[in-house]
Write a structure and sequence with these properties.
This protein has about 500 residues and is α+β, with helices and mostly antiparallel strands. Helix 10 packs antiparallel against helix 11. It is globular. Strand 9 and strand 10 form a beta hairpin. The N and C termini lie far apart (about 95 Å). It has 14 helices and 20 strands.
Length: about 500
């Protein structure tokens, strides 16, 4: 009996140790990531005398030269006009470059001449509007506006992107009841295919304005923009956990208050996968900040990153992350100025593994159809549960400004982040799931976002964007020699028979 008792005690000890390790495994995993996977420094995306790439790392391409525009606008215009003439003579394409965070070859063309606008970044206030050149980054804009007690009305959730790039993809933000960024733009200047500098607005050269915003650089090079700012209010966050079935009603309820920013984070934890949403909103305190807008990572930021990245390929890691986020309300909880919330860089949560890449997919669904879409998407996404790191839900009001709108009515956008191996095989494995999501969205009257990987087939592309034929026709009239053309533009042309729209 004594020997049996000792054996039992050993088993109890072993069981106890196993349970302790089981419960502490996610914490240990986070600790490993905290130490060995720190926040990376800003890394240059491949751009040299021979090769160009974008943020996906999957589009390395040869080019025919990089033209860096000088900081002086008049000199830049002269250089661009000269480059246009040379490109016409040599039958070369021209593509403007921003931060190259798009992933569908919008800023890349094999054998093309690429125009680097990064030195064109002058910023000033003019008649109450922000007058900014296209090469400036949103970080620089926020830093300029904050001491004036101002901030940006609509932009993405990170500040790394260029103004010209953001306008060219007509990005949206996490501002409730707001259309995409085009709605905040009063006018632009653009160099067209004839080398003419045009001022474009809703009343002047309005067709160019309509096609250049969200036009992916195909109608010319945006050089300047006049954008409406808003007060840099101090905001206080709140969060709540809701079911997908109740998400619409809770979203509308929070908007009854003075909410300035809001988003949902859809659960990717196995226990509540695509069933639960962490809904975070930021309500104004009524105070205005004139303090500088800066972003300095803190230990809390590093911990949030470690929890986030440690959930990759780990069901337990995703459960632990959800528990932590539900407990403290995410990494951006508390009181912040609007500018400080928007100035966070992409690198805080980005992949640090050279053998992997972060892939974004974004689906838009009419707000009333959100529960139906989620119900159907749940099973498709279970097949990608390991690589799916995050799904953010944002509201986008109907876009009435651009020729190629993705928000054809009031939508919820689901921004999905996958981390996969940096291989063609891994991307092919992701394709069926994304294609399935697109089909579900289209069936619900939704669309998908074009700046990411070119996963849509011809039928899906034309169903989501029936305006595409008119867009291409307008493009060919404005630029009959197709000087402004990227590999993304080639994808448009190869995806369908355009013989009926080619003049």
């Amino acid at each position: 009996m004594k020997a049996l008792s000792q054996k039992s005690r050993r088993w109890i000890w072993l069981l106890g140790i196993t349970l302790i390790l089981w419960f502490t495994y996610p914490v240990i995993r986070v600790g490993v990531f905290f130490i060995f996977d720190p926040i990376p420094e800003d890394r240059a995306i491949t751009l040299n005398k021979n090769l160009i790439n974008d943020a996906s790392g999957l589009n390395e391409t040869n080019h025919s030269g990089i033209i860096q525009l000088p900081a002086d606008l008049n000199q830049s215009i002269s250089l661009l006009q000269e480059t246009l003439n040379q490109a016409t003579l040599k039958n070369k394409r021209i593509i403007p470059l921003g931060a190259r965070h798009s992933m569908g070859k919008q800023s890349i063309g094999r054998g093309a001449i690429h125009i680097d606008l990064s030195r064109l970044k002058a910023i000033k206030m003019e008649s109450g509007l922000l007058h900014v050149q296209a090469g400036a980054r949103w970080k620089e804009v926020l830093q300029f506006l904050a001491p004036l007690g101002l901030s940006v009305e609509v932009m993405q959730s990170n500040a790394d992107f260029s103004i010209g790039g953001t306008l060219s993809v007509n990005a949206h933000g996490w501002q409730p009841d707001r259309p995409p960024v085009s709605s905040t733009v009063e006018k632009i200047t653009l160099l067209n295919a004839n080398g003419e500098l045009l001022t474009c607005s809703r009343s002047e050269n309005k067709q160019v304005f309509k096609h250049a915003l969200g036009g992916y650089g195909l109608f010319g090079i945006i050089l300047e923009a006049w954008i409406r700012p808003v007060p840099n209010e101090i905001l206080r966050s709140t969060h709540q956990i809701v079911t997908c079935e109740n998400f619409n009603s809770q979203w509308n309820k929070i908007k009854e208050g003075p909410i300035r920013l809001a988003f949902g984070r859809l659960s990717v934890a196995p226990e509540t996968f695509f069933e639960q949403v962490l809904l975070t909103s930021y309500q104004t305190t009524g105070e205005i900040s004139k303090l500088p807008a800066e972003y300095e990572p803190t230990p809390k930021t590093s911990l949030a990153r470690a929890i986030f990245r440690a959930s990759l390929n780990s069901a337990r890691g995703k459960s632990f992350r959800q528990w932590m986020e539900n407990l403290i309300g995410g990494e951006a909880g508390g009181i912040h100025s609007r500018a400080n919330l928007l100035i966070e860089p992409v690198r805080i949560f980005t992949n640090n593994d050279k053998d992997k890449t972060d892939i974004l997919v974004e689906i838009f669904v009419p707000q009333a159809k959100f529960p139906d879409f989620i119900y159907l998407a749940r099973e498709i996404m279970r097949t990608q549960a390991d690589s799916l790191l995050n799904v953010t839900i944002r509201e986008i009001s109907q876009d009435r400004d651009t020729a190629l709108p993705y928000a054809k009515k009031d939508m919820f956008g689901l921004v999905m982040l996958f981390t996969i191996d940096r291989t063609e095989e891994a991307e092919k494995a992701l394709l069926p799931s994304v294609s399935g999501l697109i089909d579900i969205a289209l069936a619900q009257g939704g669309t998908f976002y074009l700046p990411y990987r070119n996963y849509a087939n011809t039928k899906q592309l034309l169903q989501a964007y029936p305006e595409l034929e008119n867009f291409i026709s307008s493009k060919k009239k404005a630029d009959p020699k197709e000087i402004f053309a990227s590999d993304f533009y080639s994808y448009f042309l190869q995806s369908a028979d355009w013989k009926n729209v080619i003049p």
